[in-house]
Q: What sequence folds into this?
């Protein structure tokens, strides 16, 4: 876990907390959606990097 992961996690938590003060369901839904997007994007990027390193070997 590098500093960008920590920054993204902090952003998700703060966004979810701020929206939870406005409407709890909105905060939970937004935080869940952001976590899902971050997980999918991270997985795709990791696979792409692994694929590139295998091709180069």
A:
């Amino acid at each position: 876990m590098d500093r960008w992961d920590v920054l993204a996690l902090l952003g998700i938590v703060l966004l979810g907390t701020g929206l939870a003060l406005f409407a709890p369901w909105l905060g939970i839904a937004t935080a869940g959606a952001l976590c899902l997007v971050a997980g999918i994007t991270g997985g795709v990027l990791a696979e792409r990097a692994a694929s590139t390193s295998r091709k180069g070997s």
Summary: The two ends are 26 Å apart (CA to CA). The first helix runs from residue 3 to 22. The chain has a mean pLDDT of 79.
